[in-house]
Design brief:
Strand order of the largest sheet: 1-2-3-4-5
Structural class: alpha/beta
Radius of gyration: 26 Å
Number of domains: 2
Number of helices: 15
Strand content: 5-15%
Shape: extended
Helix content: 40-55%
Largest sheet: 5 strands, mixed
Length: about 325
């Protein structure tokens, strides 16, 4: 089983908390829109609308929130890929349509659709340069676009481009400490050997994460993220965390123990899988030898090197096969 995307894990934990999500949305949505939303009633909705083949590069969260007394949704997608997706307006439109499809399935008597506000959070080191408007993807010249515009879908998304968000702007953004540190780490953590040093200037926010309800769990999630994507020396990171508070160091020890246990579990699982594969290969060799006599070394090497799925397929053919080639075809 594949390991969860580390970006996805920390994004969902931190932004999945309504107070954190509300602070981020208030900060990035246009003021005229944000002022109409009742963020006190912001609620996360379960489910993901991303294409299965793209889940390694995107994460998404859906929220419901009243707008002027009516039901509305905010759809947040975070882009993890190292290069931007020029087709993002099309992809976002597809996801919005899926949200409406699910809404209509849940409300079969509805004759109107709730608004869905689309937001993309981009955290590549390079700023976003592609368009956020669907119209710009259409293969038409300017004159033709003008002529057919009344018959084209109008759609665009709001972009929060972290690559253009510098340190002072991030400090000034009115978000909760967990959101501020999450955005910072999305910007600077991946592959950064100097991460422990870079985080020293953000010590107050790191401490503040721990002092919030549920802060210990979120702090551990942030440490796990740092360990997963960063390259800071362990002793430097430990030294930084130890200066924050005893609770922070406890979280660091907890994280280290969890990562060690997970590593051991993965190692044991790999060992068990290898043992099972060897056992099935040995059983197949025995069956083949009983039916066809002593096997050439090339066949033995092939059987022992094959993945377990292939060994199972060969084993299923032994009873009906008339020759060795019929089994190993």
């Amino acid at each position: 089983m594949s390991q969860p995307n580390p970006h996805d894990a920390v994004f969902r934990l931190v932004l999945g908390e309504p107070a954190n999500a509300a602070s981020q949305l208030r900060a990035v949505l246009p003021h005229g829109l944000a002022s109409r939303l009742d963020f006190r009633r912001l609620t996360q909705v379960s489910g993901s609308f991303i294409d299965a083949t793209l889940r390694w590069r995107h994460s998404d969260l859906l929220f419901t929130v009243p707008i002027d007394g009516r039901e509305a949704f905010i759809y947040v997608l975070i882009e993890h890929q190292s290069s931007e997706d020029p087709l993002m307006p099309f992809r976002m439109l597809r996801y919005v349509l899926r949200i409406w499809d699910r809404y209509l399935a849940d409300h079969p008597e509805a004759s109107r659709l709730p608004v869905v506000i689309p937001l993309v959070v981009h955290h590549n080191r390079r700023p976003w340069t592609s368009s956020s408007q669907l119209e710009d993807l259409l293969d038409l010249d300017a004159d033709t676009i003008t002529a057919v515009r009344p018959y084209l879908p109008r759609f665009g998304f709001i972009l929060d481009d972290l690559a253009r968000l510098d340190g002072p702007a991030l400090r000034a953004r009115p978000v909760t400490p967990p959101v501020r540190i999450t955005l910072l780490l999305l910007k600077i953590a991946t592959g950064n050997p100097n991460l422990a040093h870079d985080l020293q200037d953000w010590a107050d926010d790191l401490r503040a994460v721990l002092h919030r309800p549920g802060g210990f769990e979120q702090f551990v999630a942030l440490l796990r993220y740092i360990e997963s994507v960063g390259e800071a020396p362990v002793d430097e990171l430990h030294k930084l965390v130890a200066t924050l508070s005893p609770e922070a160091e406890e979280a660091y020890v907890t994280t280290a123990e969890m990562l060690r246990a997970e590593g051991e579990a993965r190692g044991e699982a790999r060992g068990e899988a290898r043992g099972e594969a060897r056992g099935r290969a040995a059983a197949l060799v025995q069956l083949l030898t009983l039916k066809f006599g002593p096997l050439p070394q090339t066949v033995l090497d092939r059987v022992h090197a094959a993945p377990i799925e292939q060994v199972e397929a060969w084993t299923a053919r032994v009873l009906t096969a008339e020759t060795l080639d019929d089994v190993l075809r």
